[in-house]
Amino acid sequence: MNWRERIIVDPLICHGKACIKGTRIMVSVILDNLADSMNEQEILESYPSLTHEDIIAAISYAAELSRERLAPLSA
């Protein structure tokens, strides 16, 4: 999974927070829902524009950030 294909940071969208491309759903919202014990199906029902791949991208993005190094969003 290449999270860079699904996650963007644009200062004009959600105040520059990491979002799923083509939506205004922030990565942090997905992660907060997972942390609150929501399962994938519940998240997908709550946010119909999301896909399984978007959720995996959010987790992959968080894993990258947790390695305590910079995670550039541009190629």
Cα radius of gyration in angstroms: 12 Å
What is the straight-line distance between the termini? 15 Å
The coarse silhouette is globular
- Given this structure, which CATH class is correct? Mainly Alpha
Strand-residue proportion: 5-15%
> What is the CATH superfamily label?
Winged helix-like DNA-binding domain superfamily/Winged helix DNA-binding domain
Topology, pairings included?
Elements: E1 7-8, E2 19-20, H1 27-35, H2 40-46, H3 52-66
Antiparallel strand pairs: 1-2
Helix pairs in contact: 1-3
Descriptive terms for the model:
two-stranded antiparallel sheet, single chain, globular, mainly alpha, 75 residues
Describe this structure in words.
The chain is mainly alpha-helical and 75 residues long. It has one domain (3-66): Winged helix-like DNA-binding domain superfamily/Winged helix DNA-binding domain (Arc Repressor Mutant, subunit A). It has three helices and two strands, in the order E-E-H-H-H. The chain has helices spanning 27-35, 40-46, 52-66; strands spanning 7-8, 19-20. Strands 1-2 form a two-stranded antiparallel ribbon. Helix 1 crosses helix 3. The protein starts with 6 loop residues before the first strand and ends in a 9-residue tail after the last helix.
How do you describe this structure in short?
This protein has 75 residues and is mostly helical.
